[in-house]
Amino acid sequence: MTALLVIAAFLVLAVFLGLRARGGKEMTLEQWSVGGRGFGSVLVFVLLAGDIYTTFTFLGASGWAYGQGGPAFYILAYAAPAYVLSYWLLPAVWRYAKQHRLVSQADFFAKKFDSPALGALVALVGVVAMVPYLVLQLTGMGIIVSSASYGHLSPHTALVIGTVALTGYVTVSGIHGSAWTSVVKDAMILGVVVFLGIYLPVHYYGGIGAMFHRIDTVKPGFLTLHHSGQSPTWFASTVLLSALGFYLWPHTFSASYSARNPQVFRRNAVVLPLYQLILLFVFFAGFAAIIAVPGLKGSDGDLSLLRITVKTFDPWFVGVVGAAGLLTALVPGSLLLMASATSLADSVFRLARPQAGDETVARLAKALVPVVAAVALLFAFNGGSTLVNLLLMGYALVTQLFPALLLSLPTRRLITKQGAAAGILAGVATVAAVTLTSTTVGGLLPGLPQPVKDLNVGVIALAVNLVVLAAVSALTRAGAARPAVQLTNSSAP
Could you tell me the pTM of the whole model? Predict the structure, then answer.
């Protein structure tokens, strides 16, 4: 019961901060969704860093270290190239969004290609991709609170309470609530993760080096990449796919609009790779659990960090760890809810009702928050995949937006809106087909060399996307140019 009281106290604190963050501001659509574009380096840092320390990091990363060994280090690797990319990408996105007063990722595509229909397509793809990510946060929240409360609360009950709290402060305070809760979350998670990552290896093995020697003796080869399957090719292609998709999540993309100026991104791009190294301590906690709490199979591997915490510490500290885990679900969950609701209201609804004003769209976005939360809750009750698998599926979907985004940035547009839409649809259809049929590259083309067969299937979807995008852009550009040429010829003397 002590642990449960500690968790409840932090939940109350998070809701209090989330509601207070409104601070008497009038919650217009721009204020609610992008904070009036007035956030400085610290608030933008904690919002963008929110994707490092989510429920996935807390449970999924330690769970994969526990269950998969060496391949788990892809989680540590992919953010560094993403931050390098952000140094050039985010300032360009921010300037265009500020110039045109955009509030969502879908707005960006609609304006760049002068196509509200393309904006609606991007909004729908984004929402579909965010559902598994939101389910991941809610599922993790249920696991954390239930385990840390020693079973006093069932995962489903914990999930419902957390979702109601989340929905409440997102509806009232928007991104302001997420930002202030992020500050508490980052301070707590840093302290908890670093302590666990050092203490557990020392307590059970005598040190970090001794822990790895022991694991290598008990499970030879567990700490290295495999010759096939999760091989170096899989590792490199998964890092590439995740890095390209890192800022394509609608909640991360639109959170970048909240910055005060583009220098905020460049300062954060320098600091964030160092901050990412803290993930090592999450891995250490997961590796420490391999021998201390053996026997967790499949998705139960996600419980490894909590099981070793419960086995090692007094209930009050288990409550602190559970509270930190709870906050890792609330903050990204709030951003996901807000981005989904804003995309649906601002891009899909406005396509049907172009005359709708900002006030109407803002009211609809807030009304959609509990609807999206309820849908995610339904999936969370019926989910079964491991947390990492849910994240990989979401990444494969949002990465399909990357080619159209990149090729829209030059002053002279390189592709057509039809090409962008066709490429996105082809990529998403490929991801859906391979996910539903559990297909791998090796399964599709068994005669290929093993390194090619081990490619992350999301990269194949990206290749299909690019081919279709280029072909349709060439055809539609030629079709658009032909009447102009004919007109020129017919008007010649």
Answer: 0.80
